[in-house]
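stage 2 :: seqdesign
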């Protein structure tokens, strides 16, 4: 789905919750993945200039969950370790976004290339 506007951020939260329920995640895990998705969607709009989200309801036989892939073609992140530190921000926020999203998920991966954009993949398992 496209993640271009603040309204899309709301739709991201709604769709991720539906997928989390479908995967059988409990309320706490649903809340964690929806919160992480909301933060990453907001970053996609605010810092990446808009992008996309791919949602996967996943089942590897032993467990079920939700995997989300956010991609943008914005300015990228020059220093990923710094961007993951609490308190670091290039905007007006508290600087808890990326690090917070990472803590809320079972899996977290980020790829970014200055001038070419950013891809963040997260997963939450039951």
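stage 2 :: out
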């Amino acid at each position: 789905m496209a993640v271009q506007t603040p309204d899309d951020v709301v739709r991201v939260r709604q769709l991720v919750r539906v997928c989390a329920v479908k995967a059988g995640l409990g309320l706490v895990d649903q809340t964690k993945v929806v919160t992480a998705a909301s933060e990453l969607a907001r970053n996609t709009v605010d810092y990446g200039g808009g992008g996309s989200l791919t949602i996967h309801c996943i089942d590897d036989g032993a467990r079920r969950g939700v995997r989300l892939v956010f991609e943008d073609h914005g300015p990228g992140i020059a220093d990923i370790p710094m961007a993951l530190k609490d308190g670091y921000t290039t905007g007006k926020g508290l600087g808890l976004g990326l690090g917070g999203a990472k803590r809320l998920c079972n899996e977290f991966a980020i790829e970014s290339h200055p001038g070419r954009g950013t891809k963040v993949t997260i997963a939450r398992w039951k």
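stage 3 :: structure notes
- Residues 23 and 65 are 5 Å apart (CA to CA).
- The first strand starts at residue 2 and ends at 3.
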